[in-house]
């Protein structure tokens, strides 16, 4: 009798598993994966002779700023379900040996004034709002929105062009097997999907001033949910500020040394789950400047401090394999080591290599991407609000001490 009960129980259990599996299978649709190649080993450089004006090639790539900006129009489907969205960049030096700021961005659809018609001379950046001095294009204005930054990155010292150079072979420390040929970054940007669907202009900028420049590849990948019930909720993205100096007459922003940067924005009545994303890197000023000195960043909403932190990276030595062209110094240090003859630990003074790329910096290292900070704004209500960005101890530009901060911020919310 017990055997019969046991067999009946097992049969019922198996039937329940099959039923659950069938129900689960009925809730799955085919995945719609979509990939867009933005740029494929495109040359980004400074060449005022070849790119004196706006230039468009046979692949539809528009070059601005004497070749330092690439723009391409793409088409992305309107997805019905939630989508995992990633951006991937590959970069190698084509001869530029130095570390440079870089940015992948989108031209906001609602901005009637954009980089293309500015570069063509048809439009101009709106006059700066009070408080932004002569820094053009960094805050919203009439018919204008700052570009939406998809990824901030920092080029390494010469990866690719100098990786096989005999000139730099003795700069390689013993703890890395070889110089890398390229650097690759990937970030999840799913929250930016509302700004990517449909027809958009995507751009890449590198602050290079050499004709050799860099080779850049970039792609967007979209992986739509398999679940029928995983319906995409309406959401929005709105840019607040972007101090990256992409296009003339934009320039390096040392504003924070003198005052805070304030910008107003309206939160719609149906907005919920409101949050702010903030990308920041400090630059310039030599060894005592904002690039190498920790500086607190403070974000306030309507006069109340919402978030403050000190953006800093002290792991730069871990990216040494991407920096063959980095300057190297010798530094004396007392090293403890195992003596082969005695098998015991001994100490002696050695000279150890230290590279420029090893030094800690304000939220970046040569050869890294920059991760946005997400700040929940749980208590914010619909209506007009003032956002203030402060770096109280930032330093100003003095001669060749080019202190400046690249910050970009945007609001996200669900509807």
Describe the fold and architecture.
The strands form 5 sheets. A 7-stranded antiparallel beta sheet has the order 2-3-4-9-6-7-18. A 4-stranded antiparallel beta sheet has the order 1-10-5-8, with no helix packed on it. The chain is mainly β and 415 residues long. It has 2 helices and 21 strands. The longest helix is centred in the first third of the chain and has 25 residues.
Question: How is the topology of this model organized?
Answer:
Layout: H1 2-26, E1 33-44, E2 55-56, E3 62-64, E4 69-76, E5 83-93, E6 101-107, H2 115-119, E7 148-154, E8 183-188, E9 198-206, E10 214-224, E11 235-242, E12 261-267, E13 272-283, E14 297-301, E15 304-309, E16 328-338, E17 345-355, E18 369-370, E19 373-376, E20 383-390, E21 404-414
Antiparallel strand pairs: 1-10, 2-3, 3-4, 4-9, 5-8, 5-10, 6-7, 6-9, 7-18, 11-21, 12-20, 13-19, 13-21, 14-15, 14-20, 16-17
């Amino acid at each position: 009798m017990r055997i019969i009960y046991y067999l009946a129980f097992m049969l019922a259990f198996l039937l329940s598993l099959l039923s659950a599996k069938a129900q689960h299978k009925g809730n799955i649709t085919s995945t719609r994966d979509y990939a867009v190649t933005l740029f494929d080993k495109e040359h980004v450089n400074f060449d005022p002779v070849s790119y004196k004006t706006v230039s468009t090639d046979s692949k539809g790539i528009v070059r601005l700023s004497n070749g330092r900006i690439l723009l391409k129009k793409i088409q992305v489907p309107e997805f019905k379900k939630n989508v995992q969205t990633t951006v991937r960049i590959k970069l190698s030096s084509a001869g530029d040996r130095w570390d440079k700021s870089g940015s992948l961005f989108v031209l906001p659809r609602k901005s009637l004034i954009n980089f293309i018609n500015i570069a063509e001379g048809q439009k101009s950046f709106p006059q700066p709002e009070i408080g932004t001095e002569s820094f053009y294009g960094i805050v919203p204005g009439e018919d204008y929105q700052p570009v939406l930054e998809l990824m901030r990155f920092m080029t390494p010292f010469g990866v690719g062009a100098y990786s096989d150079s005999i000139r730099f072979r003795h700069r390689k420390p013993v703890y890395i097997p070889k110089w890398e040929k390229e650097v690759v970054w990937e970030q999840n940007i799913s929250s930016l999907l509302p700004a990517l669907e449909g027809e958009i202009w995507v751009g890449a900028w590198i602050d290079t001033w050499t004709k050799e420049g860099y080779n850049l590849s970039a792609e967007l990948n979209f992986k739509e949910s398999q679940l029928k019930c995983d319906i995409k909720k309406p959401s929005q993205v709105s840019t607040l500020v972007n101090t990256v100096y992409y296009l003339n007459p934009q320039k390096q922003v040392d504003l924070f040394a003198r005052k805070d940067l304030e910008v107003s924005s309206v939160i719609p009545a149906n907005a919920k789950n409101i949050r702010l994303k903030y990308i920041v890197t400090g630059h310039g000023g030599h060894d005592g400047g904002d690039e190498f000195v920790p500086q607190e960043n403070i974000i306030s909403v309507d006069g109340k401090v919402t978030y403050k932190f000190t953006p800093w990276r002290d792991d730069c030595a871990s990216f040494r394999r991407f920096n063959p062209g980095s300057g190297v110094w010798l530094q004396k240090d007392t090293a403890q080591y195992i003596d082969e003859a005695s098998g015991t630990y001994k100490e002696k003074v050695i000279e150890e290599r230290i590279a420029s790329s090893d030094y800690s910096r304000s939220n970046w290292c040569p050869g890294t991407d920059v991760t946005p900070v997400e700040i929940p704004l749980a208590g914010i209500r619909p209506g007009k609000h003032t956002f203030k960005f402060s770096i109280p101890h930032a330093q100003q530009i003095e001669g060749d001490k080019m202190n400046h901060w690249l910050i970009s911020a945007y609001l996200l919310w669900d509807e």
